[in-house]
């Protein structure tokens, strides 16, 4: 005979993710619906909680949870892989010759050891955006790139591609000088239209103002940082 245990998660003093919805409430609603569905079909089903109380699941480590014996007969240990959702946004970063460089950001709280990836490639971490960042060059319009980014940004195990440096050291030499201001100005004037000569990270470093675009204001800001 089939037996099913539904681990609801969160509950009581642990709300889970809170935004437009509260995760503990959504979890419970879905779990109860699943429980009722299975019970109605004669499947022996247990559930870790039926109200707004702290879930009886006991977390160990590395995604391992234990269901106490008071809930069922004997202890059962299950391994849970949690994937987090991120909010994906796209902004026009630079205008190129016939194309646009778009900034894709992915924000949200991710489990330890997981990062946001774009089409399988780890994204860069940006303190100014409080999000992961990635640049995409495309001839498509903003809405089309948004749709593409929503499909390509995923959360997976890994490490970030690096951290964006907003100190003014755009070219990564360890020194903020006139060369960084010139590089930023050249980016704005479309001297570089790919990441072959100037890396994606350097393009990201150029947004010193943190307004999700590169322009002359960034070059001016870098000049003011030169000591």
Model description:
With 227 residues, the chain is α+β, with helices and mostly antiparallel strands. Helix content is 25%, strand content 26%. The chain contains 5 helices and 12 strands. The chain has helices spanning 23-40, 142-152, 178-188, 200-205, 216-225, and strands at 3-6, 44-47, 58-59, 64-67, 76-79, 87-95, 100-107, 114-118, 121-122, 124-126, 131-138, 153-157. The strands form 4 sheets. A 4-stranded antiparallel beta sheet has the order 6-7-11-10. A hairpin with a 4-residue loop joins strand 3 (58-59) and strand 4 (64-67). Helix 3 (178-188) packs antiparallel against helix 5. The longest helix is centred in the N-terminal third of the chain and has 18 residues, at 23-40. It is elongated.
Annotation keywords:
227 residues, alpha+beta, four-stranded antiparallel beta sheet, three-stranded antiparallel beta sheet
Helical content (DSSP H or I, runs of 4+): 10-25%
In terms of DSSP E residues, the strand content is 25-35%
Shape: elongated
**Global mean pLDDT:** 88
Classification by helices and strands: alpha+beta
The count of helical stretches stands at 5
Q: Find the count of extended strands (DSSP E, 2+ residues).
A: 12
Instruction: State the low-pLDDT regions, or none.
Output: none
Summarize the helix and strand pattern as letters.
Answer: EHEEEEEEEEEEHEHHH
Largest sheet: 4 strands, antiparallel
Widest beta sheet: strand line-up: 6-7-11-10
């Amino acid at each position: 005979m089939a037996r099913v245990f539904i681990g609801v998660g969160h509950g009581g003093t642990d709300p889970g993710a809170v935004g437009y919805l509260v995760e503990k409430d959504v979890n419970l609603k879905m779990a109860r619906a699943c429980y009722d569905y299975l019970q109605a079909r004669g499947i022996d089903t247990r559930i870790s909680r039926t109200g707004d109380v702290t879930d009886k699941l006991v977390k160990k480590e590395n995604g391992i949870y234990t269901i106490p014996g008071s809930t069922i007969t004997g202890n059962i240990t299950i391994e849970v892989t949690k994937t987090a959702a991120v909010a994906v946004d796209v902004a026009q970063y630079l205008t190129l010759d016939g194309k646009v460089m778009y900034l894709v950001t992915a924000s949200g709280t991710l489990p330890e050891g997981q990062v946001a990836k774009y089409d399988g490639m780890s994204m860069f971490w940006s303190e100014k955006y409080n999000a992961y960042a990635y640049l995409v060059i495309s001839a498509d319009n903003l809405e089309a790139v948004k749709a593409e980014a929503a499909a390509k940004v995923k959360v997976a195990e890994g490490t970030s591609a690096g951290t964006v440096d907003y100190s003014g050291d755009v070219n990564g030499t360890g020194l903020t000088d006139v060369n960084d201001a010139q590089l930023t100005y050249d980016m704005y004037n479309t001297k570089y239209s790919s990441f072959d000569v100037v890396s994606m990270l350097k393009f990201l470093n150029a947004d010193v103002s943190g307004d999700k675009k590169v322009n002359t204001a960034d070059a001016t800001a870098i000049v003011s940082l030169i000591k």
